């Protein structure tokens, strides 16, 4: 059965291996130079204000002069797309193609139960799916390490697209750590289950893509912020280092690297405000040389809900666990569906 | 004589539509059994139930005394060749043999190789490029080389041209003779079955219309021709299967265990095809009459 799985899955495996190899070559070719730029940027060993200067110099150089922003975007895009591609091309046809071409009548009449057939196929292909996606993620994390360090230090002050987010930002969180394992397992079993249900490969592929894209979007938007109930704090305008455009905090005082989920300025009465209060719009005076001090003096505060940086790994584990549990459920559905022998 | 397939009130439903209802039959082992019936009689459904590709919605089915498809042992005992003999288009002939070898503990490599050589199949050729006849031969090779006790074939020759059909059946017969296989094969063409089967079952609308060894069926059925006569006046022991009348003449297909003694009749030998058609039209005729009653009642 292992041989048959490999034989039927050979081309997909080779395609995945080729894609991995091409990506590895790209990263290996550009990675050392990126690291040398980082080394030359004086970010290592910087203190206080010099850090921002160094980070700014490094990131601005990357974003304008080099292929790095392109590779960065490509890498993130690839890790995001890999589970979907796997779900579509590995998962959806796994059962549907057998039903469509009626080859199930051949293979399910060998001296092996279809439960065993499915178990071997799901296990081997599923593990391959997880390995490929995680390998992409790890390779990219190695390559992008200097960028991750720099954006970590910039704390949201400096915006040099595409290097905009810290490690909690939706795209970075989804593509780093162990979550790619969960996404890959989920997408693969989603494809298989959809194929078993729809019984035709091409429609199953389309449905798989639609569902997976929706889940991939919904997770960071609506689910991830609630995986661990966030903490609340009310900080001074000054210490929250407000972005005066929309009055949101850029840092959580005392919690470096925290993930700000919501933040809003509140007035002395505790009501949220969305725009700079009128008196602070005018030219600065001696009493309030900047909008922050102006707001400060009028009793404004910043209310923030956030996840401290220490919860990065717990949230990673929970999110991965959720997707692995979903994957097991979907696999269970496939077994149940085949066991009912409605073919 | 033990039963190859034994069913009791067997039924299978696709959504609302029953494909097979209340089917009770016993197919003996040690024969080459032809299962014949019109399209939609439930042959494919019955055979799919027998190999466990479908689960019954009503009644029971036992194959060689076990539950169809229940486990590796049961699967190893039954070989199956589905309609149109599907194979993996992207896999070569040699890959298919390897598949068989890997998935069947009882695989007979010598037998498989021998067949492929004799049938002149190129081991390197992709199965998707084989002709219909070659594909059927390859699928049959897989089904036989796992050394089953019972081989079930669903319309194995329906899509083959006459020459390929003849070759396939001759080859099947050779394998049966060599390996002492029990065989059940379905067809809606009696001519195919006549050549290979020694036992016949006519299935119409999930019901067995007639079943028995071919020799016995031929020996007990007679075609009678004589002056006009009402079939109701015939002596007991004669069962009329079909009757046709002109003003002066009556032609009957009858079943009897004894001889035909009445000198008024001219007795003809009946062929298997006429016999089967008589039983099939008997069933459809009855159904037509039922429909007529319904219409009148409306």
Describe the structure.
The complex is a heterodimer of chains A (343) and B (298). By secondary structure, chain A is α+β, with helices and mostly antiparallel strands. Chain A folds into 2 domains: 2-226 and 313-339, no CATH class; 232-311, no CATH class. Chain A contains 11 helices and 4 strands, in the order H-H-H-H-H-H-H-H-H-E-E-E-H-E-H. In chain A, strands 1-4-2-3 form a 4-stranded antiparallel sheet, with no helix packed on it. The radius of gyration of chain A is 25 Å and the shape is elongated. In chain B, the strands form 3 sheets. Chain B has a 6-stranded mixed sheet, with helices on both faces. A 4-stranded antiparallel sheet of chain B has the order 11-12-10-13. Chain B has a 3-stranded antiparallel sheet with strand order 2-1-4, covered by helices on one side. In chain B, 40% of the residues are buried. Residues 288-298 of chain B have low confidence and may be disordered. Chain B folds into 2 domains: 3-205, Rossmann fold (3-Layer(aba) Sandwich), CATH 3.40.50; 220-297, no CATH class. The longest helix of chain B is centred in the C-terminal third of the chain and has 26 residues, at 272-297. Chain B has 298 residues and is an alpha/beta fold. The radius of gyration of chain B is 22 Å and the shape is elongated. Chain B contains 9 helices and 13 strands.
């Amino acid at each position: 059965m292992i041989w048959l799985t490999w034989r039927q899955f050979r081309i997909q495996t080779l395609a995945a291996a080729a894609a991995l190899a091409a990506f590895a070559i790209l990263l290996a070719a550009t990675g050392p130079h990126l690291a040398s730029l980082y080394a030359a940027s004086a970010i290592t060993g910087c203190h206080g204000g010099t850090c921002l200067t160094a980070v700014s110099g490094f990131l601005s150089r990357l974003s304008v002069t080099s292929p790095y922003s392109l590779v960065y975007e490509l890498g993130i895009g690839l890790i995001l797309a890999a589970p979907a591609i796997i779900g579509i091309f590995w998962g959806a046809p796994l059962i549907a193609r057998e039903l469509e071409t009626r080859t199930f009548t051949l293979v399910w009449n060998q001296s092996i139960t279809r439960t065993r057939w499915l178990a071997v196929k799901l296990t081997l292909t599923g593990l391959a799916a997880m390995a490929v996606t995680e390998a992409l993620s790890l390779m990219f994390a190695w390559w992008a390490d200097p960028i991750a360090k720099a954006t970590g230090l910039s704390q949201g002050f400096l915006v040099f697209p595409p290097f905009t987010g810290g490690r909690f930002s939706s795209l970075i969180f989804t593509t780093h750590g162990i979550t790619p394992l969960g996404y890959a397992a989920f997408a693969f079993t989603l494809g298989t289950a959809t194929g078993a249900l729809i019984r035709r490969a091409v429609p199953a592929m389309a449905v798989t893509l639609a569902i997976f894209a929706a889940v991939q979007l919904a997770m960071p938007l609506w689910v991830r912020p609630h995986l661990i109930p966030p903490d609340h704090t009310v900080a001074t305008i000054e210490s929250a280092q407000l972005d005066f455009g929309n009055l949101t905090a850029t840092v959580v005082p005392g919690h470096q690297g925290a993930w700000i989920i919501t933040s809003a300025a509140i007035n002395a009465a505790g009501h949220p405000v969305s725009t700079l209060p009128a008196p602070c719009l005018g030219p600065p005076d001696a009493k309030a040389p900047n909008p922050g001090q102006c707001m400060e003096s009028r009793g404004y505060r910043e209310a923030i809900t956030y996840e401290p940086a220490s919860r990065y790994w717990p949230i990673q584990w929970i999110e991965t666990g959720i997707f692995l549990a979903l994957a097991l459920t979907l696999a269970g559905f496939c077994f149940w569906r085949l066991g009912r022998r409605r073919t | 004589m033990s039963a190859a397939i034994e069913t009791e009130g067997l039924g299978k439903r696709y959504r609302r539509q029953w494909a097979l209802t209340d089917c009770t039959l016993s197919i003996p082992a040690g024969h080459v059994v032809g299962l014949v019936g019109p399209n939609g009689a439930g042959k494919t459904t019955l055979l799919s139930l027998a190999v466990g590709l479908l689960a019954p919605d009503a009644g029971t089915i036992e194959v060689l005394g076990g539950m169809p498809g229940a486990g590796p042992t049961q699967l190893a005992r039954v070989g199956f060749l589905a309609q149109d003999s599907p194979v993996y288009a992207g896999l070569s002939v040699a890959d298919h043999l390897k598949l068989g070898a890997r998935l069947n503990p009882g695989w007979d490599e010598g037998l498989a190789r021998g067949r492929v050589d004799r049938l002149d199949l190129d081991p390197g050729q992709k199965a998707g490029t084989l002709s219909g006849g070659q594909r059927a031969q390859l699928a049959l090779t897989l089904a036989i080389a796992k050394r089953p006790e019972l081989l079930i074939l669903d319309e194995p020759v329906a899509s083959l041209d006459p020459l390929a059909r003849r070759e396939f059946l001759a080859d099947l017969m050779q394998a049966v003779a060599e390996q002492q296989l029990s065989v059940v094969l379905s067809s809606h063409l009696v001519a195919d079955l006549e050549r290979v089967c020694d036992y016949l079952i006519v299935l119409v609308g999930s019901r067995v219309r007639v079943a028995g060894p071919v020799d016995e069926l031929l020996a007990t059925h007679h075609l009678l021709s004589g002056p006009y006569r009402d079939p109701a006046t015939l002596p007991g022991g004669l069962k009329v299967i079909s009757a046709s009348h002109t003003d002066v003449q009556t032609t009957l297909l009858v079943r009897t265990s004894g001889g035909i003694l009445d000198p008024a009749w001219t007795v003809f030998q009946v062929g298997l095809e006429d016999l089967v058609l008589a039983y099939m039209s008997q069933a459809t005729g009855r159904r037509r009459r039922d429909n007529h009653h319904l219409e009148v009642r409306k």
